[in-house]
C-alpha cells in the first residue's frame, strides 16, 4: 500500500524568507511524487513532479522539491516566499507497481501562510 | 496544458433529489477519470476510478448505488448523487488522465444539500 505523510498542518513564514513544506512517503516500488496547490474553493493546481532523474525538481512559481530516497522524503521548497503563495499544499504519491492505473494517494495537506 | 472542466461549479439542492456533476477533458482524451470528495480543510478522498466504456471501480466505503458514475466517452464522465442528503454536502473534484501517469484536476463543484 502507498501512503503519504505531511506532518505539519500549517506553516507560517514571513514574506521574503525561504519556505519548506514537508512530505514523506511509503511505497512498495519506485515512487512517482507530486505537489499540488489549492486555493479556496478551487481545484488542485499542479506544481511539480518527480518520476526519475535529478533529485532536485523545479516546478511552477519558483517552487522546487528534493527527492531523498534514503529518507523517503519529497519536501517542497521556495527560496523567497510571497504572500500570494498562501494556500493549501498537497503532496501525492503513486506507486510505480501498483494496480488501478494512475491512482494517487494524497497527504492531509499543509496550510501555508505567508505574512508581510 | 491539459484542461479539465466541471459543471456546475456550485449547486444547491433539496434533500431527496438527485444531482448530476459533469467532468470534461477539453483538449485531450481521458482514458481514466477520478472522482474525489473533499471536506473543509481536509484532504481529497478518492471515491471512484472510471475508465471509458467500463464500470467504475469504487473505493471501500463508497456506495455505488448512491454515487453513480458514468464514463461514456473519452472526454466526459458524470457523477450523479442520488437521493441527496445534507451529509452529502461537500466539494467534489474530478481529475482526468490520458496515456501518461499525470492527473489533471477540474476546478471542483460545491454541493450543498438543504
Rg of chain B, alpha carbons: 13 Å
Number of discrete helical segments of chain A: 0
Give the end-to-end Cα distance of chain A, rounded to a whole number of Å. 41 Å
Main sheet specs of chain B:
7 strands, mixed
Q: Which word captures the global form of chain A?
A: globular
Would you report the number of β strands of chain A? Answer: 12
From the alpha carbons, calculate the radius of gyration of chain A and give it in angstroms. Answer: 14 Å
H and E order of chain A: EEEEEEEEEEEE
Proportion of β residues of chain A?
over 45%
Q: Helix-strand pattern of chain B, N to C? A: EEEEEEEEEEE
Individual helix count of chain B:
0
Bin the helical content of chain B. Answer: under 10%
Q: Helix/strand-derived class of chain A?
A: mainly beta
Relevant terms:
heterodimer; A: 116 residues; mainly beta; 6-stranded mixed β-sheet; 4-stranded antiparallel β-sheet; 0% helix; 52% strand; B: mainly beta; 7-stranded mixed β-sheet
How would you describe what is shown here?
The complex is a heterodimer of chains A (116) and B (114). Chain A has 116 residues and is mainly β. The model of chain A has no long low-confidence stretch (mean pLDDT 91). Helix content of chain A is 0%, strand content 52%. In chain A, the strands form three sheets. In chain A, strands 2, 5, 6, 10, 11 and 12 form a six-stranded mixed beta sheet that branches. A four-stranded antiparallel beta sheet of chain A has the order 3-9-8-7, with no helix packed on it. Chain B is mainly beta. Helix content of chain B is 0%, strand content 54%. Chain B contains no helices and eleven strands. Chain B has strands spanning 4-7, 10-13, 19-25, 32-38, 44-51, 57-58, 67-73, 76-81, 90-97, 103-105, 109-113. In chain B, strands 2, 4, 5, 6, 9, 10 and 11 form a seven-stranded mixed beta sheet that branches. In chain B, strands 1-3-8-7 form a four-stranded antiparallel beta sheet, with no helix packed on it. In chain B, strand 7 (67-73) and strand 8 (76-81) form a beta hairpin. The model of chain B has no long low-confidence stretch (mean pLDDT 91). Chain A binds chain B through residues 32, 36, 41-46, 49, 51, 88, 90, 94, 100-104, 106-109, 111, and chain B through 4, 6, 32, 34, 41-44, 46, 49, 51, 57, 91, 93, 95, 97, 101-108, 110.
Amino acid at each position: 500500500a502507498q501512503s503519504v505523510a505531511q506532518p505539519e498542518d500549517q506553516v507560517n513564514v514571513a514574506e521574503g524568507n525561504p519556505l519548506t513544506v514537508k512530505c514523506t512517503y511509503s511505497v512498495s516500488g519506485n515512487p512517482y511524487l507530486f505537489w499540488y496547490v489549492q486555493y479556496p474553493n478551487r481545484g488542485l493546481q499542479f506544481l511539480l513532479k518527480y518520476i526519475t532523474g535529478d533529485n532536485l525538481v523545479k516546478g511552477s512559481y519558483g517552487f522546487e522539491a528534493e527527492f531523498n530516497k534514503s529518507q523517503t522524503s519529497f519536501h517542497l521548497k521556495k527560496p523567497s516566499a510571497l504572500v500570494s503563495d498562501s494556500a493549501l499544499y498537497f503532496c501525492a504519491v503513486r506507486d510505480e507497481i501498483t494496480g488501478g492505473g494512475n491512482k494517487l494517494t494524497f497527504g492531509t495537506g499543509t496550510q501555508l501562510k505567508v505574512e508581510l | 496544458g491539459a484542461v479539465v472542466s466541471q459543471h456546475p461549479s456550485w449547486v444547491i439542492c433539496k434533500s431527496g433529489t438527485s444531482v448530476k456533476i459533469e467532468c470534461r477533458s477539453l483538449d485531450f482524451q481521458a482514458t481514466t477519470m477520478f472522482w474525489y470528495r473533499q471536506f473543509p480543510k481536509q484532504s481529497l478522498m478518492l471515491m471512484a476510478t472510471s475508465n471509458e466504456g467500463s464500470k467504475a471501480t469504487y473505493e471501500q466505503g463508497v456506495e455505488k448505488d448512491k454515487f453513480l458514475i458514468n464514463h461514456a466517452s473519452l472526454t466526459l464522465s458524470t457523477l450523479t448523487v442520488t437521493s441527496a442528503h445534507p451529509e452529502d454536502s461537500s466539494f467534489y473534484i474530478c481529475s482526468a488522465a490520458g496515456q501518461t501517469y499525470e492527473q489533471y484536476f477540474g476546478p471542483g463543484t460545491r454541493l450543498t444539500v438543504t
